[in-house]
Design a protein that fits this description.
Strand content: under 5%
DNA-binding region: 40-59
Helix content: over 70%
CATH topology of the largest domain: Tetracycline Repressor, domain 2
Shape: elongated
Largest sheet: none
InterPro entries: Homeodomain-like_sf, HTH-type_TetR-like_transc_reg, HTH_TetR, Tet_transcr_reg_TetR-rel_C_sf, TetR_C
Number of strands: 0
Oligomer: single chain
Number of domains: 2
Domain HTH tetR-type: 17-77
Order of helices and strands: HHHHHHHHHH
Mean pLDDT: 87
Pfam family, one: TetR_N
Low-confidence stretches: 4-8
Organism: Limnohabitans curvus
Structural class: mainly alpha
Length: 217
């Protein structure tokens, strides 16, 4: 006896609600594997187990799908991070270490790290995507880190600096790590040369303490 529509409806509804997330996951994997230009929407649909027509019910274009990948995997993290740092009780140095760890845990050490390499490599050919990434990721990311630096300056923990420029000294090594992960780091001969967490903390310590030897009195 065939199941009634009432019996199958909840299951179908759950499946329908899951489809956007499944499509975004499939798109992330394929974009990172093949690049934005080389990825076809029918490939994304097939990997998610739906038809191309179903994909277009949720996303108007491949560009719209890629924006959803950026939003779901990176941009949506910032509101919670901003709230968390408002009540951070440690020093500004500890706050900076913690912020770098958060980024690596939630982005750098996940498939989403491939988005960074992808945007950098294809920004010139797809300026709309680059502009979206700038607005949704770069601006809130630099804003958060700049607020940590400014906190340190105002508390007398850091020396006076132009935080709008100094912030890129913090961002640069994170970009390097993600680029390395999806290039040389993917090769067996180079995979274990850099320990990401060790590299992050070493870099933060260099920024905080400088490289000059302390003179003894």
């Amino acid at each position: 006896m065939a199941p009634s529509s009432a019996e199958t409806s909840p299951k179908r509804e759950r499946r329908k609600e899951a489809r956007p997330g499944e499509l975004v996951k499939a798109a992330l994997d394929l974009f990172v594997e093949k690049g934005f230009a080389a990825t076809r929407v029918d490939e994304v649909a097939a990997r998610a187990g739906v038809s191309k027509g179903t994909l277009f019910l949720y996303f108007e274009s491949k560009e719209d799908l890629f924006k959803a990948v950026i939003r779901d995997n990176i941009a949506n993290l910032f509101p919670a991070w901003n709230e968390e740092f408002k009540t951070f009780g440690g020093s500004s140095a500890e706050m900076l270490h913690y912020a770098m760890d958060l980024w690596w845990l939630n982005v750098g050490n996940t498939p989403a790290s491939g988005i960074v390499k992808l945007v950098i490599s294809e920004a010139q050919n797809f300026p709309e995507i680059a502009a979206f990434y700038q607005k949704e990721v770069v601006e809130p990311g630099t804003g958060l880190l700049q607020s940590i630096l400014q906190r340190g300056v105002e508390r007398g923990e850091f020396q006076h600096m132009d935080t709008s420029k100094s912030v890129f000294s913090i961002i640069a090594p994170m970009i390097f790590l993600m680029m390395w992960k999806h290039s040389m780091g993917a090769c067996a001969a180079s995979a274990n040369i850099i320990d990401p967490k060790e590299f992050i903390h070493m870099h933060v310590d260099l920024l905080l303490n400088g490289m000059s030897a302390k003179k003894t009195q």
